[in-house]
Fold these 2 entries.
Entry 1:
Amino acid sequence: METELGSASAAPGEVARGWFDVADLPTGTPERLPVVIVNGAAEGPTLWLTGGVHGDEATGVAAVLDAADAFGSMRSDLAGTVVAVPVVSPAGLRRNARHTYYDDADPNRHFPDADAESARPPKLQERIDARLYRAIVGEGEGEGVAADALIDCHTAGVDSEPFAIRDRVLYGDRRTEAEATALADDLAAIVDAFGFPTLTEYPAAEYVEENLQRSAAGAVLNEAGIPAFTAELGAHSVVDDRIAAAAVAGTVSVAVALGLLDATDVPSSVSDASDRLDPAPVDHPVRRYRGPTAETAGLVRHHVSAGEPFVAGDTLATVVSATGERRDEVTVDHDGYVIARTEGLAVYEGDPIASLAVRDDGDLVVPRDAAGD
Ligand SMILES: [Zn+2]
């Protein structure tokens, strides 16, 4: 079957590149997203890869481009289709910045959520995100492109460890608890195949408060019920080729898990890159945690670096005055490890000093009511 999205149209066994128009610009040109379709020689599931929803997240874009190339070279062995959109936010890419200049919006917090409908008409970012979302879930914007799974590639802060984020699956109006459990199992299978250290997303209330159910992966998972996760590929702004190669290896193993490829058809030059990442330094399940917070203003001097473990009660940082006097200690009340230290030397009261992976005993399937809406 021919697979088509925007101007890209690929017959079985072919690779096609093109553009998917998502809006008109005042300057008379369309806002268009780059598309690469790798249509396998045989039919099978469809794996979507997206990157660059934040315009400064260079390694995510590189990983999607490199993965599309890798699948292209394996297309005669591929049973199914890979649809890659390497730059989801062209307006962010033009600025090399996380946000677009449309209302200075975060493009990754405006995907559809039927419970978040506003009385006001949707603005441009929300319309662009909705057009892409409809294409991903197969609501009539392309032929044969409906996703069976999505990997959305990002990067995090300065000096961040790479990781994958597994969102909790919400149940309630959209699906029953049993359906949510089945979806969470399908999600676990692809996240495990990706092979990066995995963090479960924030607890439900914080997840919805931060509008993360309206991220690309959050909406595809929790609104459409399609397995989807976010890959955080190290730090922003500069391509990290080691992590990009590991992400390509992980993406190819997701394709194997979904049945698009036989593991024996994957060249070792691709799969070996998965060994280049360090495993998580703790062996218990972890979730994302932003903190602990400084309670005194000053300059923060960290004692624990990205990738290093800690236990509850450890001091992660000291806050000092600009004349070097010790003002406060910042301790942690969880076990876990440091994903990244927060950017910036100056801290104010209430500022989180790090992004952590902390022990998680929470459920992976939770009622949406627990999110407080
Ligand atoms: Zn991002």
Note: The chain has two domains: 3-276, 286-359.
Entry 2:
Amino acid sequence: MDSIETAYLEKTPRSRAAFERAGRVMPSVAKGAYYYAPYPVVIDHAEGCHLYDIDGNRYTDFANHHTAQILGHRHPAVLEAAEEQMRRGIAVGAPTGVETELAEELCRRVPSLEKVRFCNSGTEATLHAIRLARGFSGRPKIAKFEGAYHGSHDAVEISVAPDVTKAGPADAPLPVPTTGGMSPRAVEEIIILPYDDETAVERLVATHWSELACVLLDPRAGVLPPRPEFVRAVREITRIHSVLLVFDEIVGFRAGTGGIQEVYGIVPDLSTYGKIVGGGFPVGAFGGRKDIMALLDPAQGPTGFSQSGTFSAHPVTMAAGLAMLRQLTPEAFAHLNALTDRLTTRLQMGFDDAGFAAQIVSSASAFSVYFTDRVPRTYRDLDATDKRNVRRVFLSLLNQGYYLSAGLAMNSLSLPMTEAHIDRLTEATIKAIGEGQS
Ligand SMILES: Cc1ncc(COP(=O)(O)O)c(C=O)c1O
């Protein structure tokens, strides 16, 4: 066992015992993303931009619950809104009005949102957006980009992180299922597009448009920021071929008050949301053009469509989400984006000065670190990065008191952070890479 892992074991004996106990009743962890080897730290409580584990270690939190906790933890406005709603009734099986306030806030922020609906996760949001696109267009297939994640349902969990030896040519990728147990039909209903190649996107959409209900685009390409001209070209290509464009803003809504579509100057037909929109509670939302959303309107008589869900539009989630969004002022985004620029510039300088073949890429106050000597632009570039030391670097950061996502991808900043947090993370990351390589 190496010294990084030995130090981790010494610092976290209670987490280890908790992991062994959990493994008796769960397949090791309660959800896949919680796991990393040898075992995850178990969190006792959280405050501001810090997590505290059951062994008494403190971490600066750069994971922020899969990017959702943009205000950090236990923000007083969110706590107060959720507590107030709980006192009035936790789940009452009827509208309370707070969902209208959150819908108004979203529509006010995002001009392309004429109408919205709520659900429980980003997964559900993309599922419903795709159903709407299929129903509205009368076309059966969808297109998504290679390397993009849009949730865990069969229609989209395809070519998320494919083995490139099975994924065909870069400019005409083949669909590859991400997990066992998916419907064998799923790969027949999808066209996979390459990021950063508008010529190939034009060719593929022009070939398949008559069967395509929509193109689903996460304009962050995971965390890679695509060229604005590429994103605009995708909008133009879909418009020319009358294919609906669905923007996945589930992480990108961190970019600014109008989300990432405002940053790129794009008007999509439908958009999907999750994460920060629920104030730290489970949430999804989708919306866009009112002629498409009208398919879900029961007051217009039977349309043949439905969307509901026991806990969709849960009042506590709605109240917390509204409180969170109200904190996300232009000044708040300016602070987060300035810190992201500082981190990106300083860390890249640190990598270059130390002679590390490493890149930091960032978008919408989310960032990833990859081991490669060239700036990655596509999924295939990411696939070619060196993954051998990722785990050691991640564990070294934990040992130094920094909690990132285990693959070092999809980390994020939170509002309570200051330049000092950024500069300390920069130093710790350089140290971790030095340790991780030795
Ligand atoms: C871009 C994107 N779309 C969809 C999802 C799925 O959201 P959820 O995990 O809430 O189902 C995620 C989750 O990380 C995401 O990053």
Note: The chain has a mean pLDDT of 96.
